[in-house]
Amino acid sequence: MQHLDLQVVRRALEWSVAGQRIWLCTVLATYGSAPRAPGSLLAVSDGGQWIGSLSGGCVEEDFLERVAEGAFDEPVSVVRYGEGDDPRSRVSLPCGGILEVLVEKFDAGCPVQAHLRELESALLGQRRLIREVILASGARCLFADQEQGARIERKVDRVRIRIGAAQRLLLAGYSSVAQACAEFAVGLGFEVILCDPREEVLEGVVLNGVEIRRQLPSVFIADGGCHRDTAVVALTHDPRIDDLAMMEAVRTEAFYIGVMGSLQTSQKRFERLRRIGGLSEAQLARIHAPIGLNLGSKTLAEIALAVLSDIVRLRSGIARDQL
């Protein structure tokens, strides 16, 4: 599954290399009912081609008409759709939603192409970046992103946008809980990969939108299956699957590592990982065990909710005591 943002940036790069001017649009904020999350991208060429999405249809049509009319000629602008008080917006969103969009005009040239190539490398998972745009001048710069946090940070005079690979959920082994987590995560927009070498366990398993790999998750992880936007989750209760996955995951930059089990089971697992796996206290501290938020979960759906809620919490840079 290719990250939609990656498709947008690559197409924008192609247009720029071909000598076309482009407009790159980024959703900054949504209020009420809005179908696209902050950070979503749309690119438009001066030839009238476009790729990506801001709202699912109505905003895109209005924006393309405005570009054809010669609007958005300034280096950068912010447009607010849905309120009716922005002269550049002629549409209303369904259910009274409001959408705020950053519009950047990029003239063709090597600096623009170099900028887009940096974004491409981040979206491929090679590193994570923060893209800062000065609203008055349109000046932009990139710097390394060392933390988790909100995808968009809006200040008075500038916008900061986190750029990284598609959020990946790596499920170490199949179980009924793993299936519930996979289905939930697909709905949340994660790239979901399930690794399990046990043919008898995977027989008859159907997971729409999930990549299934018939190999040990520890092998997949050791071969580079994790980047900084990966959450590794082990939900099998089989130490041959779970423990090996944990031993490899803590050696990666995965932002979330968790394994299912009671407090007693988790304590025994930590002792095994110290004694057999040789993990340090710092490495063990990266493992969320018991996994997920304490919601009093009992059913498969409730456990999946607890696990994914904790992953989203950490991805957003929110401490548990802030909940």
Q: Explain this structure to me?
A:
The radius of gyration is 22 Å and the shape is elongated. By secondary structure, the chain is of the alpha/beta class. The strands form three sheets. The protein has a six-stranded parallel beta sheet, sandwiched between helices. It is built from ten helices and 15 strands. It has two domains: 4-163, no CATH class; 168-322, NAD(P)-binding Rossmann-like Domain (Rossmann fold, 3-Layer(aba) Sandwich), CATH 3.40.50.720. It has helices at residues 4-17, 58-68, 110-123, 176-187, 199-202, 217-225, 239-249, 263-275, 281-284, 300-315, and strands spanning 22-31, 41-45, 50-52, 76-81, 98-106, 129-134, 140-144, 152-154, 158-163, 168-172, 191-195, 210-213, 230-234, 256-259, 287-288. This is XdhC family protein. Residues 169-311 form the XdhC Rossmann domain. InterPro entries: MoCofactor_Util/Proc, XdhC_CoxI, XdhC_Rossmann_dom. It comes from Pseudomonas khorasanensis.
